[in-house]
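Note to self: the last two entries modelled the partners one at a time, which told us nothing about the interface. This time every component goes in together.
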Amino acid sequence: MPVGHSSRVGLPLRPRRLLRAASCPALLVTHRQSPFRVCPASHLRSMGHGRELVDVTPRSPLYAGLQRKIIFLTLLVSFVPLVLLGGTLYWQFSRIYREKIDEQLRYRAATHGNAVDLFLSERTAFLSAIADTHSLEYMLQPGNLASLLEVMNLRVGGFVDLGVIASDGRHLAYVGPYHLEGLNYYDQPWFVQVMSRGLYISDVYMGYRQVPHSVIAVRHQEKGRIWILRATIDSDVFTKLVRGAQVGRTGDAYLVNGDRINQTAPRFSGEGAVLAQSRIDPSKFGEGTTVLAEPGPEGRNRLYAGVWLRNAKWLLVISQDPAEKMLGLSQARNLEIGIVIAGALAIIFTVILTTRLMVKKLVEADRAVCEMNAQLVQSDKLAAMGKMAASVAHEVNNPLAVISEKTGWALDLLEEEEFQQSKNLEEFRRSLRKIEEHVERARKVVHNMLGFARRMEPHTEDVDINQVIDQTISLLENYARTSNIDIQTHLASDLPIIASDQAQLQQVFLNLVSNAIDAIGNGGSIEVSTRQLDGNIYVNVKDDGPGMTPDMQKKIFEPFVTTKSGGKGTGLGLWVSLGIVEKMGGTITVESKVGKGSTFTVKLPIVVPEKK
Amino acid sequence: METFRVLVVDDEVDFLETLVNRLRRRKLEAEGASSGEEALELMKGKPFDVVVLDIKMPGGLDGIETLREIRRIGPLTEVILLTGHASLETSIEGMKLGAFDYLLKPVKLEELMPKLAAAFEKKAAQEEKIRKVKIREMMRAPGETPENG
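The predicted structure of the combined assembly is written out below.
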């Protein structure tokens, strides 16, 4: 026994044995007419071998379903938190943002309310101070009132005219652009108010002059005499002051009185004109500063902030389209949606990629298991077949031995004198020789059968490749003949005897030749040739079958790949053959052209047998 | 060719008889035994030069056991094993036990005859050697007359 296969290959013994055992039935796999033909993997399921074999292509519904499930679940548990988090963040952010906008609006309303208040109280105080510091006589002297108005406008500004009115309502003196002397205000509501309260700031009204204006009137008591100093404030001044609170493209600010009449002109006509009814109902605004969301003139919601001025008659309204202010928010929202979508895409991509990878690995693992199972099934079959073949051969052997001996005996007896005279002597002898010849033939068949059936532990023996090929072809001759295929051999006579495993080599050649027969189908020729070159023996098996595409050529050595239709092949034959040859340190290559046929070349290194 | 005694052991009686006949026809002193026991019985009579032994025999003594016994009874008797392919391992075991050679069944007489002759030659050579050794012993120690003289 040489150093041995096992140490050369360097694989653990057990799996190797399995592989080895499994490689044996390759000849059965491809031999179409064998009663022991192994079913393709997909059929094995129903064969009741106790080992489930599954369809191990990644496209099988089993794996597709699994992949779908994994992807669905992973995406579900990734997306739900992502979307929830995104939604919550946005909701919180937008709430805070809205609050901030409200706050800004509220603050602006309050400060501008204060400014208007200050404007009014300043003028009221100044007017009161003028009244308090000048006597009626001084007021009524021509020119004095005009210079007072001048001083007032110089110091505080905003006054249009100035008038002195007696307690009976008569206009005593007037300085200003209109000619109001001599008018009697006794019946005017503001006159009644100022007489009773001492101070009056009117709403904006048209009055006699047909220009929106407002008056401030103060009552003065001087030595029992009561007179009223009255100044007009141009509503334009108000309007300008109030409009200072307008912000942005959509911001608006105006004054509304308690009767819902606009005191200054709103920026947008939809809010109502000056002195017309306002869109805004002041009764909705309570103490302090109130912020309301109301449908604006364009139908969209607008934010309205309102603050009552200290005179408690006017409401400063600041309004804004939140959309403008919300621009930042919507940008933030878009950014967030972008991030979520990018994240989602990344998740989808990763999940699909990793799941594919995982399922691929799984398929590979399953395939390995499946191959192992197939190998086990194969070796089971081989064992059963080996036993059967051995017993059949032995049973046939004994009668063959008897026939052979009896024939020999008969031939011996023919040499006796008494038979020598028989005229049929030659006929007898010929018949007996024929019997011997055919016994020899039967003997060969039986020995071949036993040769295959014998379970081969890996071992090396002296192998004559040419003889192995002859033997293989003699086995397949009948099969080839029924398919009208001519098998030619061109065997080099100078091949050395090598140390190898005869039975396994026989399987390889059997696979290649029977594949060639199957490939041709019906009518054709196969050429088997051997030659020696550079320390290797080359065996070519050439057929004139349909040939293979380059794609197919790449795949044929993979397990479960077959070109044979209808479950004729298991796709294991070439794979097993390659395994055998590679273990011997050789290779199998293929050259093929569609329509021209294929040539398989087995290269075996020449291993010189040890001397015994 | 010098004649010698051959014992054929095979459970297939038809085969046995025919082979014995054919050997006898070729001027060999052939006997047949259809079982291991019978063979051993015959061995105890006049010793055989060569035994042709079918290694696979049902019932009673099997080939290997018979071989062992034959080697015990007649250590110089050469044994040729007949074997089916399936019992090749047994044949190897037989060879280890000192069988002369093995032949695959069904065997052709043309193959068997030279093997028989070779086996007989080997046996004869061995006997010759033993004889010479004995003579040398007798010469070396002339005073010590062998008891069986």
